[in-house]
User: Fold this.
Amino acid sequence: MCIGCSNKFLVYPSESNRKYCSVVCLKKSNIHSIKMSMLAKSRNFGGYNKNSIKNHKSGMYKGYWCDSSWELAYVIYNLENDIQFKRNTKKFPYYYKNKIKNFIPDFILNDGSYVEIKGYVGPEAKAKIKHFKNKIKLLDNDNIQKYINYCIDIYGKNFIKLYEK
Assistant:
């Protein structure tokens, strides 16, 4: 049952923790804005974690490959808010430690701008962004919260269970 409008709604088994029947209902909920600000303050998501490789959460969601739970949150948010995007496959050169390497940003938007999602922005990541000639938005620990909070509010903390098996 939707906690926003009290209507019953059907969900896929993978969405069993879903709390709202629609994005519209979520946005209309008075609780939503209060919870968003409280949750943002209480959560400690992201940042560099030396165990991140073994804790890496990747998978396929509705035809999009996601390398992390952050990318999954970004994909879910965009799909449910009708934001057009694609997974990027184009390589771009950058220079780091006397070598030319290739950078493949995570996503491309319809306006031609790119999105890179990074938990830890170290020297090499900074070099990638510095040498990138196109418009790019870096979603790091400071500005990914909107997407994570959105997913947790609708699907619960374990929203990575939404990955296709």
